[in-house]
Amino acid sequence: MAIRKIIKYPSPSLRTICQPIDFRDNWFWRAEFLENVQDLKDTLAVTHNGLALASNQIRETGFRLFVVRPVPTGEWAVGLPEVVINPKWYPSNGMATVIDEGCLSMPEVNAKVARHDVIKVEYFDISGVECKIEVAGLDAQIVQHEIDHLDGKLIYDYLPKRLQIQTRANAIRNRRAGR
Questions:
Q1: How many Å apart are CA 105 and CA 154, to the nearest integer?
Q2: Which of 17, 29, 148, 168 is most buried as measured by Cβ atoms within 10 A of its Cβ?
Q3: What's the CATH code of the domain at 88?
């Protein structure tokens, strides 16, 4: 359909909580929804290093979903479905690992983020079927990162206060310069 611009921090749409999709009225089959899903897929496909993309990263806050880049076997261990709708996650164990994490909406920033190693995920697939899976490692990191986006949270929020101030100033300067 269309490759959309990935919204960069400090855009307010990144802080907007995305609304769940109501499957009871078959609303989700409307062309607007299907176009949004395709736009997310097309936009993610042209990124160099993106693994997933949440709907509010292309300024679509009315849809609580994210897409995952399908990868060839062995390249990355991503076993998630391509489209994840209305996701929720729960830790499967108490173990968390601090990971150096990046974000397409904050390309110049890496943050140390504690992510659970193994999680249970409840979501709907593109057909509207409710699914429950357990994921680990990179898949668990992707789910937690993208749900943070859908909840209006960024890796910025995990930075120490001093770095938050510096990051915000740099982001505003870059935005004004058209970068």
A1: 9
A2: 148
A3: 3.90.45.10
Distance separating alpha carbons of residues 121 and 116, to the nearest angstrom:
12
Token match 């943050």: residue?
111
Amino acid occupying residue 131 = C
DSSP H or E segment with residue 171: helix 161-176
pLDDT in tens, 18-72: 999 887 766 556 788 889 999 999 999 999 889 999 999 999 888 899 999 976 6
- Total domains, the chain: 1
Active-site residue, from 35, 101, 134, 146: 146
Is 146 one of the annotated active-site residues of the chain? Answer: yes
pTM to 2 decimal places: 0.89
Whether 6 maps to a domain, the answer reads no
98 DSSP β-pair partners: 114
Q: Which range of residues forms the domain containing residue 145?
A: 12-71+81-176
Spatial distance between the Cα atoms of 85 and 65, rounded to a whole number of angstroms: 4
For residue 119, what are its two tokens? 């999680």
